């Protein structure tokens, strides 16, 4: 039976104020959230311009996103052990520094291949930046305060998505797309300074032995499957190679599981999966993000390639998604407390799928206010989904499982996002080839892809139905927070 929901506060009493050092830690981790969210939202809005500059099709630029996501997912399994072994502060500082270096290389890119390689460098830093920061928060806050702490981090972290679309569109129009990476440099340098000053240096008392063979099996499996899916969009891999990579990737993942059952110190202990909320949360994250992970890639393409908007106008439209997300963040905790995790995640997964499908109905003649409303509502449901999924996955982890569970969640998130974008790229390519003689083939391909990823998102509803039925936590009679 799972642990109860977040315990209610005493009636009439406000939440206890955070200690000063904990508050500074939360702001520091928010800087890492800011860096990654700013980079992602600026990059997505600039992809069509980048494709034109590099002589590529805008419908086949998913490799720029997949390279980062896959590198991050591949290295995340080692992040918890590295933090335990070398200390959270030292690892966090090096992670931000590598992210800044990768940004500089991206800004200097002159070809798609060079840009993809630079994104790999960024991914090395990103693989440790957020997981280690989240781990520091998890260890410094009791379980009952963890969702509040994560919500606190997410609100300042929304500055990145708030600035990203508009700033990215403006930079693309008045300068060049290269500048979307240069702006990461001053923020990253400040993050390195702040980490040295504010982050506590913590190491695990007895660092466990690193499972090198298990890491190799797991990493190869993730890379092989992701590259195979990306190859389906026409990156030069023949169908035979795609099939071979898929088979070996699945075999490698199966071998990892059998390996983990027989070694004393596996990368992710099998006992970790005895926690029901973790099992369901991880699978739910995986399937839900197949659709939601593709949305940041597909929406800018819809606005610029499908509807013909300039980058600046598309960036302004994307702000509606961010505003919806910020609004929902304010009452995500209360919603989960009142209705329970299972009900919220089941209903919300259906709503996210419906909103994704609604983008297949857009057209150039559609009133702008209607599209803004679609983006706003989608942002709200998407935000609720992420908040509930992440907290239900980690809420029952304690002690030695905290580091492994945190790394596993981060790995699944990035892997699912990479797979979602790779699948979206393959779908776009396939649908565009089907309607190759249609003058509106790009818009039709984007519409069909939205419908397909919406169907994939519905699979998460079946997964979340396996959560234990939890009793809602009713608000206090005087209206205080529950």
From TrEMBL:
What are the UniProt keywords, alphabetically? Cell membrane, Membrane, Transmembrane, Transmembrane helix, Transport
**Gene name of this polypeptide:** mdtD
Membrane-related topology note: Multi-pass membrane protein
NCBIfam families named among the record's database cross-references? efflux_EmrB (TIGR00711), PRK10504.1 (NF007799)
Q: Where is it chiefly localized?
A: membrane
Key word Repeat present in the record? no
Record-given protein name: Multidrug transporter subunit MdtD
Q: Where in the cell is it found?
A: Cell membrane
- Tell me yes or no: is Signal among this UniProt entry's keywords: no
Transmembrane portions of the chain: 25-45, 65-84, 91-110, 116-137, 149-167, 179-198, 210-229, 235-259, 280-302, 314-332, 344-363, 408-432, 444-464
Query: What PANTHER family is this protein classified in?
Result: BLR6921 PROTEIN (PTHR42718:SF46), MAJOR FACILITATOR SUPERFAMILY MULTIDRUG TRANSPORTER MFSC (PTHR42718)
| Molecular function per GO | transmembrane transporter activity
The superkingdom of the source organism is: Bacteria
Record's Gene3D superfamilies? MFS general substrate transporter like domains, Multidrug resistance protein D
Q: What PROSITE patterns does its record include?
A: MFS
Domain (Major facilitator superfamily (MFS) profile) spans 25-472
Gene Ontology annotations for the cellular component aspect, listed alphabetically? plasma membrane
